[in-house]
Every structure is written in C-alpha cells, then in structure tokens.
Amino acid sequence: MENQSWLKKIARRLGPGHVVNLCFIVVLLFSTLLTWREVVVLEDAYISSQRNHLENVANALDKHLQYNVDKLIFLRNGMREALVAPLDFTSLRNAVTEFEQHRDEHAWQIELNRRRTLSVNGVSDALVSEGNLLSRENESLDNEITAALEVGYLLRLAHNTSSMVEQAMYVSRAGFYVSTQPTLFTRNVPTRYYGYVTQPWFIGHSQ
C-alpha cells in the first residue's frame, strides 16, 4: 500500500509531459552509448585493416628489394668471372682491337650486337688522365673491356621495363661505362660518364 501511494505521488508530480521527456532522455542515452560502441568497433576494424595493408606493402617491398639485391649479386659475380676468365670469342677480341683504335678519341662507342648486348661507351686517354680517381694503367684492361661487353649482355637480360629500377649500369675507372639507358649520340658520352664518376656512390669506392 505504501509503495502504491508513493508511485501515485510521483505520477501526480510528473505529468505526461515529464514522462515523455524522461523516456526520451533514456532512449537518447542508450542511443549515444550504442553509437559510441559502434564507432569504437569501426575504429578498431579500420586500424586492423590499415595495419594489415602496411604489412602487405612492407612484405612486397622486402621481396622486391631482395630480388634486386640477388640480381646485383648475380651481375657482380658475372663481372668477376668475366674479368678472370673472359670468353674467347672472335667478336670480343675484335672489341679489344677496336678499343685500341679509338681510345685516343674524345668519345667512342663499341657495339657487338644491338639486339643482344649493350654498347660500351668511353672517353679518351686524355680525359681519363684529368681525373684523380681514373686510370687506364691496368694490366687487365683488355679483360675489363670484354667483361663489360659480357655484363652488357647480362644487364640487357636482367633489366625490364616493369622493374622499379630506373637504370642499371657498370662504370669503370678506366674511362668507359655500360648502361641500360642507351647513349644515342657519341658526343653525349663524356657528359654521361663524368655524371657517373662524380656521384657519391662512385667516389666512395676505393677500387
């Protein structure tokens, strides 16, 4: 009886309008809680999705980097083998003869086969003598010329347009280079060569 009388007192004090307002406040409170909970769940899902995406990107970059490192190691080993034991091909021997004929020219290019290998591009003895880091006083210079042509063949095979690597090249201190980006005009060879040998990555190597 006492409880009923207490409820009647509250009902008399709280009119219909107050009851509606109270219900509205309760509904609003629960809606706010549910919305907040949904936002938290969506935020966690977004963070998890972004984390997975970043992990996938990192894994893809690692694989691509490892692939390029393996390719560089392969090319380096190929160059070493070519220096020690060059292939005894008539065309390679002719390339050495051609180098001896053109080494005094301001700029020169030696090509074996445009479809299969890259050209060796070089500068004169006089230009080489002007560089502190450059020298042709090398007993294995002939081997290096033929090795550069062999590596040009490997570079042409290894390089493709879909690769992230913009350019691959071999640059010699003896005044010549091989690059996957061809030098179309002989007159541009000195500029490109000195562009290579003045780079920090070239200067930083002692041999």
Annotation keywords:
207 residues; 2 domains
Percent strand equals 5-15%
Tell me the helix content.
Answer: 55-70%
Order of neighbouring strands in the sheet with most strands: 1-2-4-3
Tally of domains:
2
**Based on helices, strands and strand pairing, what is the structural class?**
alpha+beta
Query: What's the tally of helices?
Result: 7
Distance between the termini: 105 Å
Low-confidence stretches: none
Give the C-alpha Rg.
37 Å
- What is the 3D shape? rod-shaped
| Mean pLDDT over all positions | 78
Q: Order of SSEs, N→C?
A: HHHEEHHEEHH
Total strand segments:
4
Biggest sheet statistics: 4 strands, antiparallel
Tell me briefly what this model is:
The chain crosses the membrane at residues 18-36. The protein has helices spanning 2-13, 16-84, 90-102, 125-129, 141-158, 189-197, 200-203; strands spanning 107-110, 120-123, 169-172, 176-179. The chain is an alpha+beta fold and 207 residues long.
Outline the structure in words.
This protein is α+β, with helices and mostly antiparallel strands. α2 packs antiparallel against α5 and α3 (90-102) packs across α5 (141-158). It has helices at 2-13, 16-84, 90-102, 125-129, 141-158, 189-197, 200-203, and strands at residues 107-110, 120-123, 169-172, 176-179. The mean pLDDT is 78. It folds into 2 domains: 2-67; 86-203, no CATH class.
Give the SSE map.
Layout: H1 2-13, H2 16-84, H3 90-102, E1 107-110, E2 120-123, H4 125-129, H5 141-158, E3 169-172, E4 176-179, H6 189-197, H7 200-203
Antiparallel strand pairs: 1-2, 2-4, 3-4
Helix pairs in contact: 2-5, 3-5
